[in-house]
């Protein structure tokens, strides 16, 4: 009995010591974020927000829609918008060199006085996604009228991404009016098919290469400040430092065709069904690493105690942490390569056996993996099933991961923090942006639109009732104005 008591006492004291160790580690945990408080931010020029809202409303009325079928666009809408831009932003057009690439993508250059400095680049695309016909009646205000009501500008593109395009131009116009002359060259790239094949951004990257220009940094759309960030239920400014890769695999199974009244044991459709399950049952591993992990590590000090303890003691709680983050599809997407079967094709008629049946599986590849890993994993899943795998032509590996210690990062973070009121965390962008094309010609690429949205509000992007509040419009002109003045004066 005594021995048991002694063993229990020893175990208990070990347990208490271990618990104390975890608590101390949790309480002394430091965010790995670089200190951005040393950055001296130049003030933003005054921008008339009412007028900026009117300009955004006018921009929305141009139907610069990238259609699903490449080539179905009404290109006269871009021409009309370019004429309107020239009339509206006269100082920009008088002081910046404007070149067009791929027909409709705009590249504006404001020369700096010191040509030895690498330029910095702001991006915002001109095109928008269509409005699904069946949803048009659900809009509070028509999607292409640009109505200003209830303290917001309503319409397709008000956020994604004409909001940024207009805010950047308003800021530059105001800076020029105040006599601003940069030391470092500023380049603005307005792509015209970001919601499509990214030909404009691809041509812009070639323009940089041909001129031998390497950008110090690029800032494009991507992430925003989320007002109800899940683990904190509070604001977090998420700045994208990388974006996931993209691939589609076509699985094709073959079988004897013929009349469906005399089917063989193995049909193309049944084989394909087995193959789809074999592939989707062999998912990419989840891990706490890369930009998704960086987000957690940076927000940990602001998180409730148990979450903070799990992040501060990742070596112990990793499986729990993965379970917690992966509880939602959006969280899971940050931890691994996702795959989604999206399209199926087989017989055109109900009583005809198809010779082939095929499925499309869409992948979003986590940084650290490649298209080759995705194909390999699918092949392993399929084993010796008689199915072929073909990679779709729009495949691209994940982007490189940008620095979170460089001076441009600190400037962007200092601004996004709104005078240190908001934690700024690096993040992973799940969709593809135009800035991907510029990664080979830039040292760092950041993806952040300086607006505040709740998680539920983000569904208006590509959805219904897209609108830009005047508060968010002001946040943007403050951000871009100060960013250009700060980054351009060094
Ligand atoms: Zn966009």
TrEMBL record:
Keywords: Hydrolase, Metal-binding, Protease, Zinc. Residues 241-380 form the Peptidase M20 dimerisation domain. GO terms for biological process: proteolysis. GO terms for molecular function: metal ion binding; peptidase activity. InterPro entries: Bact_exopeptidase_dim_dom, Pept_M20A, Peptidase_M20, Peptidase_M20_dimer. It holds the Pfam family Peptidase_M20. Belongs to the peptidase M20A family. NCBIfam families: PRK08262.1-3. This is M20 family peptidase. It comes from Mesorhizobium denitrificans. The lineage of its organism: Bacteria, Pseudomonadati, Pseudomonadota, Alphaproteobacteria, Hyphomicrobiales.
């Amino acid at each position: 009995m005594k021995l048991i008591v002694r063993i229990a006492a020893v175990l208990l004291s070990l347990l208490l010591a271990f618990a104390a160790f975890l608590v101390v580690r949790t309480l002394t945990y430091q965010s790995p974020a670089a200190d951005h408080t040393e950055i001296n931010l130049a003030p933003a020029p005054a921008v008339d927000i009412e007028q900026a809202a009117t300009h955004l409303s006018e921009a929305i009325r141009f139907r610069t829609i990238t259609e699903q079928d490449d080539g179905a666009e009404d290109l006269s809408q871009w021409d009309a918008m370019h004429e309107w831009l020239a009339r509206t932003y006269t100082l920009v057009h008088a002081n910046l060199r404007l070149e067009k690439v791929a027909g409709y993508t705009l590249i504006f250059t404001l020369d700096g006085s010191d040509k030895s400095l690498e330029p910095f680049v702001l991006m915002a695309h001109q095109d928008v996604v269509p409005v699904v016909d069946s949803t048009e009646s659900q809009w509070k205000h028509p999607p292409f009228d640009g109505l200003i009501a209830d303290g917001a500008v309503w319409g397709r593109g008000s956020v994604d991404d004409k909001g940024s395009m207009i805010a950047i131009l308003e800021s530059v116009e105001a800076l020029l009016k105040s006599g601003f002359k940069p030391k470092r060259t500023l380049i603005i790239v307005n792509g015209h098919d970001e919601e499509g094949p990214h030909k404009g951004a691809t041509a812009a990257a070639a323009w940089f290469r041909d001129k031998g220009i390497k950008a110090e940094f690029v800032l494009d759309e991507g992430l925003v400040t989320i007002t109800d960030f899940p683990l904190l239920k509070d604001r977090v400014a998420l700045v994208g430092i990388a974006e996931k890769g993209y691939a589609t695999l076509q699985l094709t199974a073959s079988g004897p065709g013929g009349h469906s009244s005399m089917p063989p044991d193995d049909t193309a459709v049944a084989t394909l069904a087995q193959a789809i399950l074999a592939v989707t049952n062999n998912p990419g591993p989840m891990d706490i690493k890369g930009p998704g992990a960086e987000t957690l590590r940076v927000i940990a000090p602001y998180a409730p105690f148990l979450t903070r303890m799990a992040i501060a003691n990742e070596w112990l709680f990793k499986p729990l942490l993965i379970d917690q983050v992966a509880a939602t599809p959006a969280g899971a997407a940050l931890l691994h390569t996702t795959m989604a079967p999206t399209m199926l094709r087989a017989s055109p008629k109900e009583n005809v056996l198809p010779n082939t049946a095929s499925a499309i599986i869409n992948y979003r590849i986590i940084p650290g993996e490649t298209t080759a890993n995705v194909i390999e994993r699918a092949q392993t899943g399929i084993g010796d099933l008689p199915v072929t795998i073909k990679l779709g032509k729009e495949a691209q590996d994940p982007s490189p991961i940008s620095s979170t210690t460089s001076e441009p990062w600190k400037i962007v973070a200092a601004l996004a923090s709104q005078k240190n009121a908001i934690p700024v965390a690096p993040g992973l962008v799940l969709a593809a942006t135009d800035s991907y094309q510029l990664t080979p010609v830039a040292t760092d690429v950041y993806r952040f639109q300086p607006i505040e949205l709740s998680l539920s509000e983000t569904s208006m992007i590509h959805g219904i009732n897209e609108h830009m509040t005047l508060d968010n419009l002001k946040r943007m002109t403050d951000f871009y104005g100060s960013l250009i003045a700060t980054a351009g004066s060094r």
